[in-house]
Amino acid sequence: MSLNIIDLIKGQLGSALVTQAAMQLGESESGISKAIGGLLPAVVGGLANNSDNPAILDAISSAPSQGVLGNLLGFSANDSWVSNLLTSIFGDKLGSLINSIATYAGISNNSSATLLNLVTGATIGSVGKYAADNNLDKSEISNLLNDQKGVVSTLLPTGLSLASLNIGDWDKGYKFDNDNDTIKQTTHEEPKIEVTRSTAEGGTFPDRAATTSDGGSIWKWLLPLLLLIAAAYFLWKQCEKKETTTTTSVAGDSLNTVNDTATVQNDTTAMTTARTDEDIDLNGTMLKGYKGGMEDRMITFLKSDGYKNAADDASLKDGWYDFDHVNFKMGSANELEAGSQGQLDNLVAILKTYPDAKIKIGGYTDKTGDEAANVKLSTERAAYIKDWLSKQGLQSQVLGSEGYGSKYATVDASASDSERAIDRKMSVRFAK
User: Fold this and answer.
1) Considering Cα of 186, then 190, then 191, then 195, what sign does the dihedral take?
2) What's the number of CA atoms in the CB half-sphere (13 Å) around residue 30?
3) Which strands, in side-by-side order, build the sheet including 398-403?
4) Which residue among 8, 114, 144, 344 is the one 20 to 30 A from 382 at the CA level?
């Protein structure tokens, strides 16, 4: 088959989706577009390397019946089948891929992980639809995926390589059909000047003068050329720098609930991210929050009548909103970090403005530690927020809470603490 899967998928990842994703994640459209451009060949390459994996073939075959393409922005880290699929594809390299794309595109790790799920959903859905439309069986789907091996590595955008994604050695490397071919890449190396020494009595170069054909010194043109190359290299490196770097460090307790936009504090240090609060319009009342953050996205959804028009709870279950500021003290299920109260107050204001809206609370941990303890702590933390909201007179609007432990964690336990931070969070979703 000569079909290029990436061309097939691009139809699902157009400018409208980029704009919507940027708004929901609080990132720039250029950052979102850049991240998708890097993730797409990585995901297709991963599928190609696993073209005979039964789990992947089953996911593609069942994609049309699951309506995967109808809700791409719903593929957050809470979708277990996407998480399991990514773990099957990338294994312990998953965290490195997320972190590399975040650094490359200038977005947060949390946004990178969400976009990875989105791109994976678009890829699985698009291939599944194509397979259904053309009556392909699993063997033919496998062949289609296998056909992509010869082109994927050449489709990575400038500034990215398999090595820079830290997945070059995953599954014994990208064993593509053209591994032995020479792949042309843009390089920026200083020209090598070969120096030879003569054994003649006159010393070095006794038999020729270092001049151009018109008698001028060779350095008259070589030195400016070297300076021009150096300047071009400097400008290229500047263009490759990401627009904004946001780093969140978390030390100690792996169950400490944080995310990449929150103020992180532990026993020895406190750091804040580069984001700043802005005014979020709640029907004339101004709340302090991030543009594209939890409050902004929830209000946008409610104003669009998305909640009012939702058929049932099942249609809302994938729409989780991660708290930006609500964090618990290390190892605690009933003590919040300083700065958490403001966002809880914002949630109270939103629910009181929309009294028909109902919600559920979710708690999550990373993959480290005892899972029974993870589930217990995340359950207690979710229950704490539910009970607090109920005490504000919202008991009829808060339908439940649940702790999921590391069930939906996407980053391997062997990854660094900062990489695992995206899995430690508290979230809220609308419910019916």
Assistant:
1) negative
2) 5
3) 320-322, 425-431, 358-364, 398-403
4) 114
pLDDT tens digits for range 317-350: 989 999 988 988 878 899 998 888 999 999 999 9
Q: What is the mean pLDDT of the chain?
A: 74
- SS (HEC) of the chain: CCCCHHHHHHCCCCHHHHHHHHHHHCCCHHHHHHHHHHHHHHHHHHHHHCCCCHHHHHHHHHHHHHCHHHHHHHCCCCCHHHHHHHHHHHHHHHHHHHHHHHHHHCCCHHHHHHHHHHHHHHHHHHHHHHHHHCCCCHHHHHHHHHHHHHCHHHCCCCCCCCCCCCCCCHHHCCCCCCCCCCCCCCCCCCCCCCCCCCCCCCCCCCCCCCECCCCCECHHHHHHHHHHHHHHHHHHHHHHCCCCCCCCCCCCCCCCCCCCCCCEECCCCEECCCCCCEEEEECCEEEEECCCCHHHHHHHHHHCCCCCCCCCHHHCCCCEEECCCCCECCCCCCCECCCCHHHHHHHHHHHHHCCCCEEEEEEECCCCCCHHHHHHHHHHHHHHHHHHHHHHHHCCCEEEEEECCCCCCCCCCCCCHHHHHHHCEEEEEEEC
| Two tokens, residue 78 | 């809470």
Q: What is the dihedral of CA 190, 196, 197, 199, to 10 degrees?
A: 180
CB 113 within 8 A of CB 77: yes
Tokens of 254: 């792996």
- The span from the CA of 252 to the CA of 268, in Å, is 10
Judge residue 29's burial from the number of C-beta atoms within 10 Å of its C-beta, 0-12 exposed, 13-18 middle, 19 or more buried: middle
Q: How much is the pLDDT for 65?
A: 62
Judge whether 96 and 151 are in contact, CB under 8 Å: no
Secondary structure of 99-126 in HEC code, one letter for each residue: HHHHHHHCCCHHHHHHHHHHHHHHHHHH
Band (pLDDT 50/70/90 cuts) for residue 208 is: very low
Question: How far is it, in rounded angstroms, from Cα 73 to Cα 71?
Answer: 6
Residue 249 tokens read as 């460090």
CA dihedral for 67, 72, 75, 80, sign (positive or negative): positive
